[in-house]
Amino acid sequence: MAADKNIADEPIVDMQNVSIRYGSNPEVLSDIKLSLARGSFHFLTGKSGAGKTSLLSLMYLALKPYLGTVTVFGTNVGFASRDTMALMRRRIGVVFQDFRLLEHLSAYDNVAVPLRIRGMSENEIRKRVKELLMWVELDKSMDKICATLSGGEKQRVAIARAVINRPDMLLADEPTGNVDDDISQKLMKLFVELNRLGTTVVIATHSQELINNYNYPRIHLENKNLKIFPPLRRVITNE
Q: Which end of the chain, N or C, is less surrounded by CB atoms within 10 Å?
């Protein structure tokens, strides 16, 4: 029981004195210290070019720091083997700003990819994928090739693919940027429910309305540094 408690208390992401730069260019982020509790929900904000995508890239193991240490799921990624990194990535759902769908496949097959990698039966895959595509209002488009879908439809396919595996951590870069308000609210309900079930969620956004409507802390990037702001409103309990 003690071991389980230690794992639960361990941050899902921990960054110490992390700096990022690309080649010989100036640092994008400098001396970052960040610790995310398991099951937490954060917004990630900052002006364009502030380093939001770079920070997310560190979290989903696509980028290693120029300086400092990054620990994900208790593993120092600087010393992790290729096989270990591949297994860790399976536990992370990512919504990219440019979608990164398999354009020659249908919406259904794109969303099914993570479940097929796990070796799930096709009957169970069909049940889960159809249910999720219905939730994001793409059930009538599930057989369409992704190259023929609109930007908003592709965004929803990308989100469905990221959450279908019920990941331990979900990282989303502007996930509501290409959809209308009604769909945006529906997607946020999906993220909130996933978080309620234990998934750690980080959403990069420029939407102040989104931040105002959901009472979560905010990671803010500015001048290569990071600050964490508490929720905008205090949660009042009857204790």
A: C
The alpha-helical segments, DSSP class H, found in the chain are 2-9, 52-59, 82-89, 107-118, 122-135, 151-163, 181-196, 208-213
Model confidence at 3, pLDDT cuts 50, 70, 90, reads very low
Q: How far apart are alpha carbons 164 and 76 in whole angstroms?
A: 27
> In 10 A of CB 78, how many CB atoms?
11
H helix intervals, 121-223 = 122-135, 151-163, 181-196, 208-213
Residue 23 DSSP code: T
Pairing mode of beta strands 92-95, 169-173: parallel
Give dist(CA 133, CA 27) in Å, integer.
Answer: 40
* pTM of structure: 0.89
pLDDT at 211 over 60: yes
Torsion of CA 163, 167, 170, 174, to 10 degrees: -20
In angstroms, the CA 97 to CA 197 distance is 25
4 or 26, which is more confident? 26
CB 47 within 8 A of CB 33: no
